Amino acid sequence: MTNKAVVLAAGEGRRLRPLTSLRPKPMVPVGNRPVLEHVVEALADAGIDEVVFVVGYRRERIQTYFGDGDDWGVDVEYVVQDKQLGTGHALLQAEEAVDGEFLVVNGDSIVDASLVSSLVSANAPAVAVTRSDQPTDYGVVDTEDGRVVGIEEKPRVYDAETETINAGVYRLDEAVFDEIRSRPGGETSLTEALASLADGDRVDAVRVEGWTDVSHLWDLLRVNSEVVGGRGEDDADVHPTAYVADGVALGDDATVGPHATILPGTALGDNANVGAGAVVANSVVFADARVGENAVVRDSVVAEDARLGSNATVEGGRADVVVEGELYEDVRLGGVVGDYSTIGGGACLEPGTVLGNDVRVGTGTVVDGRVSSETEVRR
Amino acid sequence: MCGIVGYAGDQDALPVLVDGLQRLEYRGYDSAGVCLRTEPLTVHKKAGEVGELVSAVPEASDATSGLGHTRWSTHGEPTDENAHPHLDCDARYGVVHNGIIENYGDLREELEDAGHVFKSETDTEVVPHLLEEADGTLVERLSSVVERLEGSYALACVSADTDGVVVARNDSPLVVGRGDDANYVGSDVTAFVEHTRKVSYLHDGDIARITADGVEVWNHGERVDRDVETVDWDVEAAEKGGYEHYMLKEIHEQPRSLRKTVSERTDETEGEALLEINDDVLARNERVEFVACGTSYHAALYACRLFEEYAELPATAEYASEYDGPHDPTDTLVIAVTQSGETADTLSATRRAGREGAETLAVTNTVGSTAARETDEVVYIRAGPEIGVAATKTFASQVVTLALVAISAGRARDTLPAVEASSLVSDLRRVPGGVQKILDQEDAVEEAAKEYGYDDAFFFVGRRLGVSVALEGALKLKEISYDHAEGFPAGELKHGPLALVTSDTPVLAVLTEGTRPEKTLNNVKEVESREAPVLAVASEGDDEAERLADTVFTVPSLGEMEPLLANVYLQLFAYHVARLKGRPIDKPRNLAKSVTVE
After folding, report:
1. Based on the domain organization, do A302 and A373 belong to the same domain?
2. Which segment of A161-175, B397-411, B530-544 scores lowest on mean pLDDT?
3. Contact B430 A59 (CB under 8 A)
4. Are residues A210 and A224 in the same domain?
């Protein structure tokens, strides 16, 4: 019986910059809980009681949040991947911490407990596969009679509307370590090792539902809106004249001022503050962030300790956004305000604006496009 | 400080005791031992780490009750002989002890005259011999023995004749843990919290008998019941969670612990701090006197300025060990700042203030602690358990809690307008984010530690709120890196310490808002002309600091909380200097977490 899981949580998640400039992708909050917490809860619900976290990039954030795992009813052990040399290399770091059969889970996409359970009952080696309409972002798995016959990482071109992709949850045994070590070159991916395993032995492809990735900034808004819903409001401080819709998550000591309006799809993190008369809709507001009086924030991400001045406006809506040199057309993204950034009173963000960390936007300024970290923008 | 663990149940006592000792290691100690109730009693004890004791004891035993102790030397050097437990001549009575027995000299002389042979130099050893002399059951014997003892003690005893553990408390904490088929006793709950969360705190004068079946408590001969409470924090949280040291873990926990500190305690709309204390205490006194030690004293110094400014109250901070009683007990509020709530010097000063008629307020991290129970009012800092001997997150939570108290006092006394209070509480809520921003710069601090960490000595300077931070920065560095470090008001440099400044003595200057940076910059020039390297912590956008200092760390704009953010850089600096030098950061030599002797 498998009751141990290795969670790969050492990577950065560059496509979610600037949110991942200061935290690893597993720590990006969805419904006021880091992606990784959703994973850990699914593991615990599926009966896993020992978890090995492979951590690396900005690992303090993960360690500080999860500690020894006691709050989730699992024992957490940490192993460190000092350099991010691929998922195979990451798994190798956990070799000493596991024996026999075990689960391997990517810490940067959300899985549910039933998905985990179906892998717990599979025979190693096995990989979870699911349908996706963005196959170019993932590993596409060719299957035949329930077994893997090939895996292609992030294919450039694909015809079909949806494809079977690797959901990043595996049941493996110790044989995988030798397979990873036999790969040429320093950087190794776990999928390459699996593809080569599948050349010789049978690798089962287990079809699953209940997998959600936050690949891009706009996915964060969509996935957040799917998971929020009246959680933790007891510990929030909502003024009697404020309006808080259903389908909202409020963190501990999140404060909503007089006549402010919090509309569906919104998560306010711990100690976040929404000033009098402000409107926040379909947005993710991280811990410690502050939305000033009468500000309007729609379809947006406001990162930790970011501050919007009075009457600042992020109107929301759709825009074309460039990520890592690639153009994504007509995505719903009002704007992103990086950690520690401040937006002056009355300033406006055009749809699709992405501000880095610690950006200063002057009073009444209108901003568009991507603004790199530690920049000052004035009228 | 010394730690006690005791067990009485239906299982082997040895593993429970050894585990308890390992849990108590954080208190600081120099030797450890266990006593198993066998016929006669079995004792294993050793100077040095609990690990060494563990390798010297068998894996299992037949005993179902026993005692364990971690010792921090007061009478007699840390040797195997002086380690607890101590026995009488015939190994019928075993005793462990926290505190000091002041009249042990006379007692020892009397016992030696009666033919008792002593094996150690400790004050404790008189107790088993006194038990041997007394009559009756173990409870009766201990009751008559404590009549003869002067001083402070928590005593735990076993006898070869009966199962169970008997304990006595006077001025030194003892907690009883209530399990299903076993009961426990400890100097604090960490000793046994993995077995049970149901605890009873004993009072001064209590004698308790703990057996597998139950707990009986007497106070001066009368049977009494002590409330059973449930401990809500877990000791598991005390484990390191992937960090090399508790200290670094606790530094990184500050944003989260500070959110807890301020949670539901601010009302920005109305401009109020919402605390669980009676505002009249703050309104009717005309003077505030803080009593505290070590890091808590530095938090109190910080708070003095805030009380004077927000509440227009004359406020002074005194080292608790130097406290001579309230200036005027009829109108003085005495505020005790103590992380553990068990600091002997602080308790003693607070009791004195209370006896003389002053109202008392405790600011502590420990629910149910002696300070919390003995003062008129208590405010908890909610920092969660702190294991590293060097206080970090509790300093931050103390300052923020004291700021809330100062704001409450200002509102209650009508000296602080609501609009000001609103902006101040808003700043307090921004402290967690501000601290995180500094933690994100850790790599740069580590670089500075590499560059300057091997220099001869370190001077920390600041003015106003920066003085307390300079003192705290120096204390952190000397505690864990063993380097010579001194903190003082920047203006005092030229009155003496400047003679020590050379090109090999880095000066760390606090130049943020709230510290009169423009004045301190003159002192920076003084030391630069002596070629001392200058590391400055300044407000963002301070061009003058950037121009003058060799290394500048910046803090975001946060009013009078900026010096508190500056302190986080100094914590990281101390940590990385100590780490480079391979110091035992969580357990510095000679130091204890909770200092329960005066």
Report:
1. yes
2. A161-175
3. no
4. no
Domains in chain B and their CATH numbers? 3-237 (3.60.20.10), 242-439 (3.40.50.10490), 442-580 (3.40.50.10490)
pLDDT higher for B596 or B420?
B420
- DSSP string computed for A313-370: EE---EEEEEETTEEEEEEE--EEE-TT-EE-TT-EE-TTEEE-TT-EE-TT-EE-SE
How big is chain B, counted in residues? 598
The answer for A71, left when phi > 0, alpha when psi is -120 to 50, beta otherwise, is alpha
pTM above 0.90, yes or no: no
The total number of structural domains in chain A stands at 2
- Chain B CB contacts of A304 under 8 Å are 433, 436
Question: Which of these, B56, B145, B47, lies nearest to B93 by C-alpha position?
Answer: B145
Residues of B in contact with A290 (CB under 8 A): 430
Which ipTM was obtained for this model?
A: 0.87
Do B241 and A68 make contact, defined as CB atoms within 8 angstroms? Answer: yes
| CATH value at residue A133 | 3.90.550.10
Contact: B268, A252; criterion CB under 8 Å: no
Q: What separation in angstroms does the CA of A33 have from each of A63, A219, A268, A337? A: 15, 15, 11, 19
What pLDDT score was predicted for residue B184?
Answer: 96
Whether residues A68 and A112 share a domain: the answer is yes
Distance separating alpha carbons of residues B295 and B388, to the nearest angstrom: 13
Domain shared by A47 and A144, yes or no: yes
User: Is there a catalytic annotation at residue B2?
Assistant: yes
Contacts of B430 in chain A (CB under 8 A): 288, 290, 305
Same domain, A95 and A199: yes
How many helical (H) and strand (E) elements, i.e. helices and strands, does chain B have? 18, 27
Q: What is the pLDDT of residues A260-299, one digit of tens each?
A: 999 999 999 999 999 999 999 999 999 999 999 999 999 9
- The closest alpha carbon to B202, from B179, B184, B231, B227, belongs to B227
From the CB of residue B517, how many other CB atoms can be counted at a distance below 10 Å? 26
Q: Which domain holds residue A18?
A: 4-215
As a whole number of angstroms, the distance between CA A92 and CA A174 comes to 10
How far apart are alpha carbons B431 and B447 in whole angstroms?
25
Is B35 among the residues known to form the active site? Answer: no
Sheet containing B332-338: order of strands: B315-319, B287-292, B332-338, B359-364, B377-380
Q: Are residues A134 and A211 in the same domain?
A: yes
